[in-house]
Each structure stands twice: as C-alpha cells, then as structure tokens.
Amino acid sequence: MRTGVVAVALAVLALAPTRAAHAQFSFDARRYGMGGVSLSRDGNVRRYNPAYRAVKNKNHVAGTPKFSIPVPFGLIQFFKDHPINQLGHDPMFDPKSTAFNPVALMDVIFNPPIFYEVKKAPLPTNDVSFTIGRNQLIIDLGATKVLIPEQEFGLGTTSRLLDVGAGFGGFHVGVMGFLQYDVGFTLDTTLRSFLVNDSTARPNTAYFVNVDGTAQAGFAPTVSYAGRLTHGAGGQDTDDGFYVGGALHYYFGATYGRAIGPAGFTTGAPPVLGSTPSPLLNGDVFTSNKPFGRGVGGDVGVVWISGPFEVGAGVNDIGAELTWSHSKIQHFVYDNAGDSIATIVVSADTSLKTKLPITYIANAALHMGTGTTVGGDVVNSGRGTVIHVGVEQRTGPLAIRGGVSRDQRKKMQFGFGGGLRLGPIGLDVGFFTHSNSLSTQRAITMATAISIY
Amino acid sequence: MKALTAALLVLLAACGKGRVIFNIDVLSFLSASDSLKGYNVIGGIPQTDSTVSRQFILPPGFGKSSVDSVSATAAASLENATGSGSVQFDVFFSKAQGSLFTGTPYLTASSGAVVGADTVPLLPPTTVSLADSVFNTDSLWVGIRARLSTNVGPNMTGHLRLNQIQLRIVLQDKVF
Fold first, then answer.
1. Which of A183, A223, A220, A245 is nearest to A320 (CA)?
2. Terminus-to-terminus CA distance in chain A, angstroms?
3. Handedness of CA A435, A39, A363, A246 (dihedral sign)
4. Between chains, do A195 and B11 touch, taking CB under 8 Å as contact?
5. Is the pLDDT of residue A414 over 80?
6. Which residues of B touch A201 (CB under 8 A)?
7. Rounded to the nearest 5°, which phi and psi values hold at B39?
C-alpha cells in the first residue's frame, strides 16, 4: 500500500510534461498542412463564435470540399504492432507486465495514432544514476532533467458535446451539453530541487506535488441570436457585412467533482534511508450530492466580411458560475499508523460554486483572388492559447499548403502539405510537427484524407 | 527506502532506454565499530579471522532485472601497534548470510609482513564482474574479513580501518 501510493504520486511526476493536445486534434489533413488553421467556416469558428450562425457555411474558396474522410494509416500500423485480439496481453496495456511503460501508454492517449507517424519523437535516452548511502540519496537524471517542469502542468478543456435546437429569423432555441475538466500539477520546490539539482534527499522533509483537479458536466438550455447588422459593398448577394451573435445559457450541472491537495512522501528521521518514507496525502475532495447545479452565462461574437477579407471574434461562457446547492466536502489524509487512507466528512451537505473558464477565438482570413488564401486564428479552449497561421495556394486541381503554429506549450510547430482533386474526389496530405509526446524533440505526423466535392 | 526507491524507479519510466546506475556507499551503512575493528591476537597463531556482515535492501526490481556489470572498490588501512605478522583484507557479497564467506572474495589485499608500530594501506584492485547473478536480488549481504597470521612473540594488536567500500551496479534494462 505504501509503495503503491508513493509510486502513483511519482508516476504522475514522470508524466508531467505531457499536455492536452486533443483540443487541437482534427481529422482534416488540409488543416494539418496549414499549421492547424482552418480556412473554412466550420469547426472552431462556429464552436466559439455565435455570430457565425448568421454567416453562410459555404466556402467561397474555389475547390473547397464538402467534407473529408480521414485515411487512418496510423491505426493500421498501430493494430499491426498491437493485434486487437491480443490487447488483453499486450504489455502496453498491462501494468503487470515487466515491459509495461506508462509513458508509452500516455503517449498513445495524448497523441492518438490515427495518422502515420513519419518521425517519432525520441524519448530522452541517457544513463540515470542513483547515489545511495546511509545519509545520502542523490539522483542524477542526466539529460532527462529537461522533462521536469518548472511551472504548473496539466490538461484541461471545455467541450460542448451537443448543440441541438431550432431557430427562426436569427433566433435559435436549443440545448447544449457541456463538459469541462482541468487537472493541474505543481511540483513543490523541494521536490523539484531534489530531481533537478542533484541534491541529496533530506530527512524529515516532505516531497510532494500539489494537485488541483476539477471536472463538471451538464446541459444548458440556450437562447441565441445571430444576424447581419449591415450589408457590405457587395450587397445582399454576397456574404459582406457585419454580423453579431449572442447566446444566453441557463446551466444545469449534472455532476461535479474537485480534488485539491498535496501528494507525495515524507522522509523519516536521520539517516534519510534509515526508515521507510511515509506517503503524504492530505487533500480535500468536493463532490455534488445531487445534480442540477445552476447558473447563467453567455456567449458573444462578431464577424466582419468585406470582399476577400473576413475577421471574427467570439467569447464563450462569460460569467458562467454554477451553484451546487447540495455538495459534500471530504478530507482525505494518509494514516501512516493504519497504512490506509482516512476519510473525514467536513460537510455532508453544503452549497458550493464552480466556474466554467472563459474560452475564445479570434480569426481572420484573406482570399487573394489568385488562388491564394491566408488565414490565422487564436484559440483558447480553456488551458492556454494556441495560435495558427497558414496559407493555401490552389492551381487547377493542385493545392499546396503551409503554416506555423504556437501550441499550448508555447512551442513553434510547422505544417506543410498538398492536395490533388480528380473530379468529385480528392486526396489531401498534410505533414505537421507536434510536441504531444513526452519528449523535448518534435515528432512529424502525416495526415491523409479523401475529400468529397 | 524500499518505497522511496520504488517511487523513484517509476520516474525512470520517463527516461527512455538507458542504463540505470546505482552507486552504493556500502561503508556508510556500517557502524563505527564495524569500520574501525580492533584486534589483539597472541603471537604464533597461523590463522584467525575477524568478520563483519551486514544486510542491504536493494531497490525492488533488482531481482527481475539483468545486471550488466558490477564494480567493487575498497580501501582500508592496517594500523598495527604491537607484535608482528600479516593481515589479509577480504570483501564478500552474497545473497545469503550462510554462504557469505564461503566463496572467493570479490576484493582482497594483503598487508604483507608487518612488524611493530606501522600503518599499511590495504588497496585491493577494483574488480568488475559481468552478469553477476549474486546481484539479482532485492537484498544483499556484504561481508568483511580480516584474516590475521601472527609471528611468535608479543601479541599483535592494532586496528583495521575501513576507508572505502563502494559498489557500482549497472542495470541495462528497466528495473520494473
């Protein structure tokens, strides 16, 4: 039990540098080829900007497909390496296997093997040395030290799982589902110093990670409006004009949970290795007893289109604070005497409040009339801002694309690709770099898709 | 220590394929009386042994991992006060205490002939053993033996001072 608790605490550490990448995940090979930017009026812009409800969803970029079907070459390779009828015994998924590597498993989760990995990000390879003495425990992680994060790390996003309803004259009434989660970890300075600075472990010292995780889900009846306030120089037959949109949500939370507190271990009296370190777990857990946490929030957005130029901005979940009238607060602490986790109910039924993080997008595109389209967007889906800039050049049936982005880890990424259209069917290929894996180096993935025109 | 090292070894999962090296300061685990062992042997004794044995708990996983190499290093000094004779300094490692002193020592050094008050360094050459199955275990015994041989005459008295006993164990594969 003791070993397990401490091991799990540090397993979290080992996985520290991975970040949520799925918020950026897409099946669109064209988008990957442009560094992640989407030049169409679907996807992120409609998700985050309610004004786009009033903008026609057609794409005035010649040759843009109706939809794309991803060709999952990565899955073929994955199931070749991991036969589906042997997954139960596959070392990748079996923690009891001596070959089980949690990092490899997390890489699969954070970086789903849909597309073919042209260049895998190499894990740092180096010798790791332990210096062990009666009063001394020093770890030298070598080059792997760079994986130890300096600031908070974690994953999180806000998703709208469904959005159904009906509308008339710009008004729309419907119901949307929402799911928000955010898990953050921060290494205590003592632990970080121990791992990074080759300093010896000290007796009677706590080494821990601060954990703060929240998850909440529910649905929200929504009334929204989107309309074109002014027509541009192109007149009513074009998309030109200034559009506004807004939505008012009444949130009904279905369930909610939050856990905060340190997890780690405390070394014993000197000598530091003279006694078994004690697991350290001392946190609070907040959970909803009953559904229907309630709150009100809203979205706003604007779009301006003038000929070849288009720009928009949208903000979601403004003022979205949910009140959970029936919640429970429990305190969890590791009891060293009993070698177990003790639970103390702090409050069996109380009222708590949670907030949905504000998410936003700003986007712009310029169709230059020579088959060239450039665009960019700035998106924050709840944990960090992502910036994409890309360009596409179409010449007859051919298209070439390129782009750059700055990901949630603030690292620059690059994309390039091309497409070939043959009548109603086309093939698109996009190569893109990413840092979704647990590595300091970028990987390169090839996305492939069949486009239907 | 077991929990701590187990937890730290989980961290190694993030390190990709590399070697895991344990530098173990064996001497630090011995008590002060183990590290400075006195002797008082009457003259004319052809052979008598003075031994110390201690058990170490190694990080879990040693038992199922393959040991690439083990280097053992030691240093001691013989601080003779009276009498004459010789001392052989031996270091053993074993999985079981019962078989600790039965095999060939990993490290050995002889003082040669010592007469009267004298200090003699005992510096056995570092030994390297490959794929040594003795270290495929979660617990290990270390044994230190001073084998004395005295000449006819006054008692041979003095101390054997241990200055260094170090193990460098290299594991090629993952420990868990």
1. A220
2. 59
3. negative
4. yes
5. yes
6. 4
7. -140, 150
Contacts of A3 in chain B (CB under 8 A): 2-3, 6-7, 60
Higher pLDDT, B174 or A130: A130
> Which range, of A93-107, B101-115, B129-143, averages the lowest pLDDT?
A93-107
Q: How far is CA B137 from the centre of its chain?
A: 17
Mean pLDDT along residues B122-131: 85
| B5 and chain A in contact, CB less than 8 A | yes
More confident residue, A58 or A113: A113
**B176 in a structural domain:** no
pLDDT above 70 for A63: no
Of B7, B23, B25, the CB nearest to A7: B7
**Structural domain count of chain B:** 1
Q: How far apart are the C-alpha atoms of A30 and A416, rounded to whole Å?
A: 9
pLDDT of residue B64: 63
Contact B151, B83 (CB under 8 A): yes
Question: Percentage of residues in chain B with pLDDT exceeding 90?
Answer: 49
- pLDDT score for A110: 67
Query: Is the entire prediction scored with pTM above 0.80?
Result: no
- Phi, psi for residue B109 in degrees, rounded to 5: -155, 145
Answer whether B10 sits within 8 Å of A127, measured CB to CB.
no
- Say if B53 falls within a structural domain: yes
* Residue B73: CATH number of its domain: 2.60.120
Give the residue among A260, A257, A312 at the shortest CA–CA distance from A287. Answer: A257
C-beta separation of B170 from B101 below 8 A: no
Of the partner residues A101, A131, A273, the one whose CB lies closest to the CB of residue B13: A101
Residue B156: inside a domain, yes or no?
yes
**Quick one: pLDDT band at residue A436, thresholds 50, 70, 90?**
low
For B14, the closest of A133, A147, A277 (CB atoms) is A147
Q: Mean pLDDT for chain A?
A: 83
Residue of A nearest to B4 (CA): A277
CA distances from A9 to A91, A263, A342, A359, B95 (A): 22, 6, 17, 31, 31
Contact B70, B135 (CB under 8 A): yes
Question: What is the distance between the terminal CA atoms of chain B, rounded to a whole angstrom?
Answer: 16
Contact between A446 and A33 under an 8 Å Cβ cutoff? The reply is: no
Q: Does the pLDDT at position A270 exceed 80?
A: no
ipTM of the complex: 0.78
The whole-angstrom separation of Cα A9 and Cα A238 is 58
| Residue B135 domain flag | yes
| Neighboring chain B residues of A139 at a CB cutoff of 8 Å | 8
Give residue limits of the domains in chain A: 2-72+114-452
Give the residue numbers spanning the domain of B117.
2-12+19-171
Asked if A103's CB is within 8 angstroms of B7's CB, the reply is no
**What confidence category does residue A13 fall into, taking pLDDT thresholds of 50, 70 and 90?**
very low
